[in-house]
Write a structure and sequence with these properties.
Distance between the termini: 55 Å
Structural class: alpha/beta
Radius of gyration: 33 Å
Number of strands: 24
Helix content: 40-55%
Strand content: 5-15%
Largest sheet: 7 strands, parallel
Number of helices: 41
């Protein structure tokens, strides 16, 4: 029983014992009070280099100088410094012992023999920075800090430990310490371990998952999930291997492998050592391209004579592969023709080549088979009699699932008879091709299916909905009925606003054209679906032909939806309409040409496409919808893309790859990818049976695609019920009668007691996230609750429930004074609340959208109380404690900027609280006094009679903390302004310049305290 909910200290003790006793790390102490802790422990590193590596003292000294020079670099950002240090760690430090002597390489880590390194573990490592921080556990290899681990007790979410790691990497804390760090970890006993590297955003922290390394945990009889993860990730060989072989720097982002990438590459290494080929099937969106990069890097180090040829059949894939390799500083050569390919194969360099089959087929051919045949034919035609490839070739065939890849393999095998072939695919193999592909390439080396990626949160789950639009185009009454059904749970205000826009669409969208009805359907989604309405999400529409794509574009433009564009293989050239003029009106091709030209507006097609794709990926608020036919349905990564509308007959590979365009992770409000099918590709409407392994996917083995698509409405209902239960369970301990004070007591404790607020903070964070999830799940199906199977009474109860918990969440936030970044917890929730909850309370709470409670009080005086939620507003004690708590939080935040002033203000607040609690002050009089105090906190310049010369907050702060010496405050202010340089905070040399400039004015014993105040002034 006493094992449940263990404190963080107990977890930390157990983890240290695990790493020392089971993995052989050496414990070097609790460094809480140890002075001068660093990421480079010079004594430990010197001992290793001298006693184990046997390097001479002069080389060691030069190496240490080179390493510390980079570690202490203040001129670059964390990414660049970390990259430079990683290079020194991985490839060694090049040193010339003396002028004229040969350069020698000194290795700080013995990569070849991992167990000959010294593995240390230290805890509570106090690191001085702008503000001292203390990582729970630091792993040192040979005295170099390579990993940090933050732990939380089992009842605190692991996300809190992740955020602590991210905070520590900020310049205001201990960013320089992370210059050497390779692995950043966070964990607790209930969720296990999450890992990333420097500057990894919270959503990209990973979970290690495997069975093949379980002999470690099984042999040791380890059942705790945190301990299992640590043993699998921090085992000495693997820990160094991940750093050496599975880390890369990709265009400003440092990346580390996911477990399936590691396991896939390790399996591939064994195949390669046996000279066997095979197939790696890693589902769409799971990082297949990076797997190629890591495997390529290993091959070229494993075999110095190795050359790698990557063949793909899509321009987007070819470009993507090139950009990824170039992004990680791997030079890759793109062949321009079959003759160029043959030439490069005969040269000794380059060692890394990529070749695009599509380039060698006939222009604008949509026939895959012809592309492959033409590619093979041209290679044979250009092959010289004395052809002799140079080097040992490893050929990667991307998208090897295609039927034609067998022909390609056969042809390439003729010209590269000794090459080893590895096929990569992001989709399952068709039943008819599976045996042939295995015969051609070999067995599956490693598989990572879609359902595994969803479970691991590597990609998002896909929600499917078939829409039958024809039923709505028979009459105006049907159209009105459709509109009402789509908007039935919107608030009257939201519905009225939508009807204004609807009215302007009526003329355009009142015809019975199927395309126009689909446009109307999509536009209504953009008006009602939060992810499409905000600035973060967008969509792709797949049309059946280029002409249909142009018609769609024209209808959207006429309806006032301008943030859309067409991306197809059509170039809109005059050649495309040659011979189309008949004198009997415009042909479809002429109409298509005119629409395209209007869209291009004088731009060249390539430039237009590049700009549109960039906006779609990086600025979704500017480009909300792309209309495509074939292009961009493979190899196009666009995390904002959330909805895929399909109005084209598709099946098997093409459909699989298309739906995976919307499964990429993005901001927290993107919970799923949505597939809207206007072609009923699975005949679900016709059969009323939801089997997503048949019909359009009938050529796959059902096990290979299990879990790819799930019914949107069915899953939406399950999600809503799960969210309801989660919030109810969280709030179950709240005491009857469940009024505002009861909720405040449970989620805040005594709001006058800072310790209570700190203790209950994790509980509040769970509340905010749970209520935000409930509101989103409700909004997802709010207009379809009846269709989902709820009764009228149940719908009413759910509405009231969601409204109730939303108000509770807002009241708790106010009462606690939490300064929460609601972009994390309630991303764009205001639109959802206004649209689907619409209570008067939500209108009141909206007053706080851009103002804090203290700002509202300063602006509106006593009347600001009327803006509080009724549950607080109607209880005088609750009002007082809410205001006091918000003021106290603000005082604590502002105190470093002016300690003397805010110390005085804190005393005044405590005196006012004491008077209120003694009931010696009338409520209205108390409110007047608390408003006056709020103004003193928010606007210090108006609260005292400062001399006119003290016209900035910094000058007034110096004045208050220098015994109100006006002349001295002005002298120091001038000295700081004259001596400060750009980015001086955290730079010891630049900070010393300021200290030297002000020390003649200040007593030596006061220098540090005044300098700390100076550092807190934003105007310096």
């Amino acid at each position: 029983m006493n094992e449940v909910g263990q404190p963080e200290r107990a977890t930390q003790n157990r983890v240290i014992a695990l790493l020392t006793q089971k993995l052989g790390y050496q414990y070097i102490g609790n460094w809480y009070n140890r002075a001068n802790n660093s990421n480079i422990e010079t004594d430990l590193l010197t001992t290793f280099l001298r006693d184990i590596q046997k390097y001479p003292p002069d080389l060691i000294n030069k190496a240490l100088h080179e390493l510390t020079k980079h570690t202490n670099d203040k001129t670059q950002n964390l990414y660049n410094i970390n990259k430079e240090i990683y290079t020194l760690l991985r490839y060694g430090i090049k040193i010339k012992p003396e002028a004229g002597e040969n350069t020698q390489t000194l290795y700080l880590i013995n990569w070849e023999e991992p167990l000959k390194n010294s593995f240390y573990i230290a805890e509570e490592v106090s690191i001085k920075g702008e503000n001292t921080k203390r990582p729970d556990i630091v792993l040192y290899i040979n005295g170099i800090a390579l990993a940090v681990l933050e732990l939380k007790r089992s009842t605190v979410p692991v996300s809190e430990a992740i955020r602590q790691n991210l905070d520590n990497q900020k310049s205001i804390f201990i960013k320089p310490f992370f210059n050497t760090i390779q692995l950043v970890m966070a964990g607790n006993d209930t969720q296990g371990l999450r890992y990333g590297t420097i500057e990894t955003p919270e959503k990209y922290y990973l979970t290690w998952k495997e069975d093949t390394h379980s002999e470690i945990t099984n042999t040791l009889n380890i059942t705790n999930i945190l301990d299992q993860h640590l043993l699998q990730l921090c085992e000495k060989h693997r820990f160094l291997e991940i750093i050496h072989d599975f880390t890369l720097f990709d265009s400003g982002i440092k990346k580390i492998c996911r477990s399936h990438q590691y396991l896939g590459i390790k399996a591939a290494q064994e195949y390669i050592k046996r000279r066997e080929g095979g197939i790696i099937w890693h589902t769409q969106g799971s990082g297949k391209s990076l797997t190629m990069v890591w495997l390529t890097k290993w091959i070229r180090e494993y075999n110095p004579n190795a050359r790698v040829l990557i063949i793909t059949d899509r321009e987007e894939l070819d470009g993507q592969i090139e950009s990824i390799f170039l992004g990680v500083n791997e030079n890759i050569y793109r062949t321009q023709s079959s003759q160029d390919l043959i030439t490069q194969l005969q040269n000794t360099t380059p060692s890394l080549i990529c070749s695009l089959i599509h380039k060698f087929g006939k222009n604008n051919s949509n026939n895959e088979s012809k592309d492959y045949e033409e590619f093979i034919k041209q290679i044979k035609r250009n092959l010289p009699q004395n052809f002799q490839p140079q080097g040992e070739f490893y050929v990667f065939v991307d998208e090897c699932h295609r039927t034609q890849s067998g022909k390609l393999h056969k042809a390439m095998k003729k010209i590269l008879p000794n090459a080893l072939f590895i096929g990569f695919t992001g989709t399952p193999l068709l039943k008819q091709d599976k045996q042939k592909s295995i015969e051609v390439f070999g067995n599956y080396i490693h598989t990572y299916k879609f359902n595994e990626a969803v479970e691991d949160q590597v990609v998002l789950d896909l929600r499917y909905e078939a829409r039958h639009v024809e039923q709505y185009i028979t009459s105006q009454s049907k159209i009105d009925q459709w509109f009402e059904s789509k908007t039935k749970q919107l608030t009257e205000t939201a519905k009225a606003e939508l009807k204004k826009r609807w009215g302007t669409m009526q003329k355009i969208l009142s015809s019975k054209s199927r395309l126009e009805i689909i446009v109307k359907d999509i536009m209504l989604d953009f008006s009602t679906k939060d992810r499409l309405q905000n600035s973060k999400g967008n969509a792709i529409l797949v049309a059946g032909s280029i002409y249909e794509a142009c018609k769609y574009y024209e209808i959207f433009q006429n309806a006032g939806f301008s943030k859309c564009a067409i991306i197809t293989s059509y170039d809109g050239s005059l050649q495309s309409i040659k011979g189309e003029t008949t004198g009997e009106g415009k042909t479809d091709k002429i109409h298509q040409y005119e629409i395209y030209q209007k869209m291009l507006n004088g731009q060249k097609p390539d430039k237009f496409e590049t700009e549109v794709k960039n906006d779609f990926v990086h600025h979704p608020e500017k480009m909300k919808l792309l209309i495509v036919v074939n292009k961009l349905l493979t190899g196009f990564d666009a995390p904002p893309a959330t909805y895929l509308y399909i109005d084209k007959s598709m099946r098997d590979h093409d459909l699989f790859q298309a739906v995976c365009r919307v499964n990429r992770l993005h901001t927290p409000d993107k919970e799923y990818g949505y597939i809207i099918d206007y072609k009923d590709l699975f005949q679900s409407l016709e059969k009323s049976v939801y089997d997503y392994t048949s019909a359009a996917f009938s050529e796959y083995d059902s096990d290979d695609i299990n879990g790819l698509l799930t019914d949107r409405l069915e899953k939406g209902k399950n999600d809503l019920e799960t969210a309801r239960e989660a919030v109810k369970a969280l709030c179950e301990p709240v005491k009857y009668p469940y009024d505002t004070p009861d909720y405040i007591k449970y989620f805040c404790g005594n709001t006058q007691n800072p310790e209570d607020l700190q203790t209950t903070e994790p509980r509040r964070l769970v509340l905010y996230k749970s209520v935000a999830a409930l509101v989103r799940k409700y909004a997802n199906i709010a207009n379809e609750l009846e269709t989902a199977g709820y009764t009228t009474r149940e719908i009413f109860d759910i509405q009231q429930e969601v409204k109730h918990y939303q108000i509770v969440s807002e009241e708790i936030k106010l009462a606690s004074g939490d300064k929460i970044d609601f972009k994390v917890y309630q991303n764009d929730m205001r639109h959802l609340i206004d649209s689907y909850i619409g209570a008067k309370e939500s209108q009141i709470l909206a007053n706080f959208e851009n103002l804090t409670l203290v700002e509202l009080i300063v602006n509106n005086g006593v009347s600001a109380v009327n803006s509080l939620p009724p549950g607080i507003r109607n209880n005088q004690t609750a009002v007082a404690e809410t205001i006091e708590n918000n003021l106290r939080k603000l005082i604590i935040e502002q105190e470093p900027t002016n300690p003397k002033y805010f110390e005085k203000i804190s005393i005044l607040l405590n005196e006012l609280i004491a008077i209120r609690q003694d009931e010696t002050l009338a409520y209205q009089e108390y409110l007047q006094k608390i408003v006056a105090l709020a103004k003193q906190i928010q606007q210090p310049s108006t609260s005292s009679q400062y001399p006119e010369s003290l016209d900035t907050p910094a000058k007034r702060s110096l004045y208050d903390n220098l015994d109100q010496n006006e002349e001295l405050a002005l002298d120091i202010d001038a000295a700081v302004r004259n001596s400060k340089q750009d980015s001086w905070r955290g730079n010891k040399m630049k900070e010393r310049l300021i200290k030297n400039a002000i020390k003649k004015y200040i007593k030596p014993e006061d220098l540090e305290s005044i300098f700390e105040i100076i550092k807190q002034q934003s105007e310096y």
